[in-house]
Design brief:
- The chain has 291 residues and is of the alpha+beta class.
- Helix content is 27%, strand content 33%.
- Helix 4 links the parallel strand 5 and strand 6.
- The longest helix is centred in the C-terminal third of the chain and has 13 residues.
- It is globular and about 60 Å long.
Length: 291
């Protein structure tokens, strides 16, 4: 049997891989709304696509992080003490590049291991049934897997990636059409029926149809559908996008916290500098495949 190496930092923190979902869930539930993505990643169909690390101070778990599998860069979420996050990123999860989400106070720990690109802070918002205010828009309809082509044509206006039909099958997507053309859509990043928790995302309206409340309408439809079996629904929005924040507030979302989501390059990676320039040329929009 192969042995798994563990490392101990100067403060006595032990970092090692984690595969026990019960241990991970118990820790993440301490801050459920902040850890929403990670909690949803514990579902069977998501968990097999992830790698997890944990940091212990004696018998006490003090930090955890999860890296999503796929072409680099992929999302990486880190939660816990600065010392614990530092140990995990140093010894367990070591992607060459990643979109790293963490609280502002633990960003210096990430910077010990990654060179981080500048970015505006993100806002985590949330809603439950008691707060939700539905918006009725008859033109909004749930999208079927066969409509993924229309969805991707819309997303290519603002994003560089594409979605497979399974994203619609496994999630919840609503859209709004004008003269038969899909002009606005919203969907889900991840959903956990077991945890009764979901994350809304991939919200986009074509440029010539913005300012009419369509994004708010499709987001409301997705949220209402999710709240039939979820206790809380969360989403992320850039802090420099007041119109979007106000639109989400109008349907009941409220701010939970602000955090950092930065593209980071492993400090020892010799190609990290010129990779930034190449990526800016090849990738005109934000990847919507996960976060």
């Amino acid at each position: 049997m192969a042995t798994v190496a563990v490392a101990r930092d100067r403060g006595g923190i032990v970092a090692r891989p984690v595969t026990d979902r019960m241990v991970l869930r118990a820790y993440l539930e301490r801050d459920r709304l902040w850890a929403a993505y990670a909690i949803c990643d514990l579902e069977d169909h998501e968990f097999r696509r992830t790698r997890w690390g944990g940091a212990w101070d004696g018998e006490r778990l003090v930090a955890t992080a999860v890296e999503y599998a796929g072409p680099t860069p992929q999302p990486l979420f880190a939660m816990g003490t600065a010392e614990g996050i530092d140990a995990i990123l140093r010894d367990v999860l070591r992607p060459r590049a990643a979109y790293i989400a963490t609280r502002s106070e633990t960003l210096p720990a990430v910077s010990h291991n990654y060179r981080l690109e500048p970015a505006v802070p993100m806002v985590r918002m949330w809603v439950d049934r008691s707060r939700f205010r539905p918006r009725v828009e008859p033109a909004v309809q749930r999208l079927a897997p066969g409509e993924v082509g229309d969805l991707n044509r819309l997303y290519r206006l603002g994003f560089a990636s594409w979605l497979p039909s399974t994203a619609i099958t496994e999630g919840v997507y609503f859209g709004l059409r004008i003269d038969g053309r899909l002009v606005s859509a919203a969907g889900t990043h991840v959903v956990s029926p077991r945890a009764r928790l979901a994350v809304v995302g991939n919200v986009l309206t074509s440029g010539e149809h913005r300012g009419r409340g369509y994004a708010q309408a499709v987001t409301a439809a997705v949220t209402e559908s999710l709240l039939e079996y979820c206790d809380q629904v969360v989403l992320n929005v850039r802090s420099d996008n007041p119109p979007a924040i106000q639109a989400y507030r109008a349907i009941g979302y409220t701010e939970y916290c602000r955090f950092e989501e930065r593209l980071g390059y492993r400090l020892e990676a010799p190609w990290s500098g010129w990779m930034t320039g190449i990526r800016r040329i090849l990738r005109p929009g934000k990847d919507v495949s996960r976060r």
